[in-house]
Amino acid sequence: MVYMNSTHEPTDSDHRHLEHLDNPVRGRVNAWMFRILDGYVHKLVGDRKQRLFSELPDTIVELGSGCGANFRYLRSGTRVIAVEPNVHMHGSLEQSARRHGIEVEVRPLSAERLPFDDASVDAVVATLVLCTIPDPISAVREVLRVLKPGGRFVCIEHVAAPAGSFVARLQRILFRPWRWFFEGCHLHRDTQSLLETAGFSSLTAERYDADTLLFLPIRPQLAVTAYK
Predict the structure, then answer these.
(1) Which H or E run includes 209?
(2) What residues have CB less than 8 Å from 31, skipping those under 6 apart?
(3) Which end of the chain, N or C, is less surrounded by CB atoms within 10 Å?
């Protein structure tokens, strides 16, 4: 069971993190991009997601649920508390939940301040999300705060390419336009170091190159399972 703190009210920090979603263009464009790329991303990382999600509990918290791309990998009947700040994605998110038999509760908040009690969550999922969060360190601290002892954090992220490589140069060249189209996505974060130093009791990380030429800047990726 997940216990939610009903006293949570959006702070000034929350509003700053969410203010780009008030843009009548960007939020809608981002939602449209996620919808049209759903099938491609499924082919790109679907097998890894299926393996990572195979033994998740019946109730999970998902950070950045987007348009519900991950619901196809969950057991029918799973309850998902979806922390998704982009309100323009909520309609597609709820449609995906109905299509896959998922019980969803959408929370339009940022991941840096989660509305759950300490040690109240069994599992948190985030895929291609930490790259978009303005303060990923705070988000990971929140994950650790809300997870129960022994609780699990599962994520897939694209990461910085090796320094001096062609992909690394491409990541820096495309940094600004990429952020606008993909929810503020940061192309060259050192997410592995962030997670390895966050304070999890155990962490397994697999680095790999995704089989993509269409989106070469996100080819270096990381799949992680970590326990509190």
Answers:
(1) strand 202-209
(2) 67, 86, 88, 89, 92
(3) N
Q: Which regions in the chain score pLDDT beneath 70?
A: 1-24
Q: What is the pLDDT of residues 147-200, one digit of tens each?
A: 999 999 999 998 988 999 999 998 899 888 888 778 778 888 999 999 999 999
> Among positive and negative, which fits the CA dihedral 144, 146, 150, 153?
negative
- What's the number of CA atoms in the CB half-sphere (13 Å) around residue 64? 27
- Return d(Cα 102, Cα 52) in angstroms, integer: 18
| CB-based contact 159:222 (threshold 8 Å) | yes
CB atoms within 10 A of CB 135: 15
Q: Is the CA virtual torsion 99, 60, 38, 89 positive or negative?
A: positive
For the record, the structure tokens of 111 come out as: 């991941």
Domain ranges within the chain, ordered by starting residue: 12-227
Residue closest to 73 by CA, chosen among 57, 102, 53, 98: 53
Tokens describing residue 145: 């705060």
